[in-house]
Each structure stands twice: as structure tokens, then as C-alpha cells.
């Protein structure tokens, strides 16, 4: 899930997030706040938010493409800021920088996944991950094209996972 879209709404978010955390805790689950938007824009912002929330059932869904798009931060440098709170990772590649919508097949962009996996291994962060491909904003692709991109992403990941 997300947080809020404006810094001015953070106090409202902080007021209500403990109730969501307590509900999740009672259900035996965790809530992942995604790196997404202009408030939770990268790992550095996530660290500050997580230190403020300080709830065992609230974590971070780290998105490797969104931290570039929203936070103008390279994930292989940025992820270290919020490692203790990561509970899920969206593996998403990126072409172009800040606010450029282009999220290609894994391995075709600028994200250094090998470095990210190395950091995760070194810091013993073992969390679920999912592949996210958003292309260049057009979602009118035939299923065969999507299948091809998923296969290419899988093949690429087999080469870079350490």
C-alpha cells in the first residue's frame, strides 16, 4: 500500500497507521508500504517514516524502479537506508531518470540488480520478491509479448542472483 501524496498529510497518516498495524499484527500479517509517490519516494524517506511509525507489523515494499522515478535515487545505493524494514521487493528496471516513465524488461534498464542482490545477501535480508514490468506507459501488449518479457526477466535474474 502507499502512504500519502503530500507531506502536509503525513500527520494524518501517522495518526491512523498504528490502527492498521495493530489490525495486521492481530491477523499475523505485515503491511508493506511501497516506495511510491513523492512522500515515500526512496529508502532514505522510508527510513524516516519507519522510525516514526515504529510498528512491528509495518514494513517496506522496496520498489527498485520507483526509487529512481520518484526519488531520483539509484536503488543499489539507496536500498541500504531501509534494509531493516524491507519485507518485500518489487524488482523493476528503469530507463531514464526522475519522472521518466519507462520500466522495461529486467536487464534492459539501468538498475544494477547484481549489486542489489549482493547487498541483500551480505546483510542477510531474505524477503519475497516479485517482478514488475510496466513498460513505457502503454499496456496494450499482446499476452505473447508479456510472456516473452517475463521469460527474458527470469533468464536475466538467473544470471545475476548471487
Structural description of this entry:
This protein is 40% helix and 12% strand. By secondary structure, the chain is α/β, with parallel strands linked by helices. A 4-stranded parallel beta sheet has the order 1-2-3-4. Strand 1, helix 2 and strand 2 form a beta-alpha-beta unit. The two termini are 29 Å apart. The mean pLDDT is 96.
Summarize this, please?
By secondary structure, this protein is an alpha/beta fold. The protein has a single domain (about 5-160), classed as Divalent-metal-dependent TIM barrel enzymes (TIM Barrel). Helix content is about 40%, strand content about 10%.
Map the helices and strands.
Layout: H1 10-27, E1 31-34, H2 43-53, E2 58-63, H3 66-69, H4 75-78, E3 86-91, H5 113-122, E4 129-131, H6 143-160
Parallel strand pairs: 1-2, 2-3, 3-4
Enumerate the strands of the largest sheet in spatial order, edge to edge or round the barrel. 1-2-3-4
The number of helical elements comes to 6
Compute the gyration radius: what is it? 16 Å
Number of domains: 1
Largest sheet: 4 strands, parallel
Distance between the termini: 29 Å
Strand content: 5-15%
Task: Please report the total strand number as a whole number.
Answer: 4
SSE ordering: HEHEHHEHEH
- Helical content class: 40-55%
What top-tier CATH class fits best?
Alpha Beta
Keywords for this entry:
single chain, 162 residues, alpha/beta, TIM Barrel, four-stranded parallel sheet
Amino acid at each position: 500500500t502507499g502512504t500519502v501524496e503530500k507531506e502536509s498529510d503525513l500527520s494524518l497518516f501517522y495518526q491512523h497507521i498504528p490502527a492498521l498495524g495493530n489490525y495486521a499484527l492481530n491477523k499475523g500479517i505485515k503491511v508493506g508500504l511501497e516506495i511510491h509517490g513523492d512522500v515515500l519516494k526512496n529508502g532514505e524517506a522510508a527510513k524516516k517514516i519507519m522510525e516514526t511509525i515504529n510498528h512491528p507489523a509495518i514494513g517496506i515494499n522496496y520498489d527498485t524502479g520507483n526509487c529512481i522515478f520518484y526519488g531520483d535515487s539509484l536503488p543499489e545505493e539507496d536500498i541500504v537506508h531501509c534494509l531493516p524494514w524491507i519485507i518485500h521487493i518489487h524488482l523493476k528496471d528503469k530507463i531514464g531518470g526522475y519522472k521518466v516513465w519507462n520500466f522495461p524488461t529486467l536487464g534492459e534498464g539501468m538498475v544494477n540488480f547484481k549489486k542489489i542482490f549482493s547487498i541483500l545477501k551480505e546483510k542477510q535480508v531474505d524477503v519475497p520478491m516479485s517482478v514488475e514490468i510496466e513498460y513505457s506507459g502503454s499496456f496494450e501488449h499482446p499476452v505473447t509479448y508479456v510472456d516473452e518479457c517475463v521469460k527474458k526477466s527470469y533468464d536475466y535474474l538467473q544470471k545475476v542472483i548471487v
